[in-house]
């Protein structure tokens, strides 16, 4: 190797790596090659198309059908959709061929060959990941009937007593001062 090639940053150098069947010379792969391989192993453009599908879910199925069948994900060539009630799941089973046709048409290929339906049970559907629940969606809990009056049973300097006082203040409306009244 010539002296000026030693300092050229673009020259591929031999590095100390274990030789393998694919890398007989022990040369470090280029970053672009590694990223391309990683992209393919992670699903590459298929994952990008699925994200586009989840984002356009209402347009793909139509608003009425999209309200009933929420996307939960995929398992190989199986599309996993969620429903709020078992009766809705049963009805959606009859519409599975139409759902498959619309989804595969959007993707431009026969990506899925089966649909399974599951109860949502508190899971967040993929078409609503960006949506956040506002504070008004969660009603404030009602105060218990017998609130307060147990302070005399607790040592005033204990963590349990401070926690109980904060709990009582939450319903009474006083500002929580972190245990310091």
Automatic annotation (TrEMBL):
Pfam families listed in its UniProt record: DciA (PF05258)
Full protein name: DUF721 domain-containing protein
InterPro entries the UniProt entry points to: DciA-like (IPR007922)
PANTHER family, sorted: UPF0232 PROTEIN SCO3875
């Amino acid at each position: 190797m010539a002296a000026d090639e030693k300092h050229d940053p673009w020259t591929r150098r031999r590095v100390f790596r274990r030789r393998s069947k694919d890398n007989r010379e022990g040369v470090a792969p280029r970053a672009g090659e590694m990223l391309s391989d990683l992209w393919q192993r992670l699903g590459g453009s298929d994952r990008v198309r699925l994200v586009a599908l989840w984002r356009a879910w209402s347009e793909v199925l139509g608003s009425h059908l999209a309200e009933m069948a929420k996307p939960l994900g995929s398992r190989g060539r199986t599309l996993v959709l969620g429903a709020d009630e078992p009766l809705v799941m049963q009805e959606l089973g009859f519409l599975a061929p139409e759902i498959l046709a619309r989804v595969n048409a959007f993707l431009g290929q026969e990506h899925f060959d089966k649909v399974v339906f599951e109860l949502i049970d508190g899971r967040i559907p993929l078409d609503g990941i960006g949506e956040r629940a506002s504070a008004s969606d969660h009603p404030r809990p009602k105060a218990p009937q017998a609130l307060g009056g147990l302070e005399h049973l607790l040592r005033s300097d204990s963590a349990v007593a401070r926690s109980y006082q904060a709990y009582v203040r939450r319903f009474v409306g006083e500002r929580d001062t972190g245990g310091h009244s």
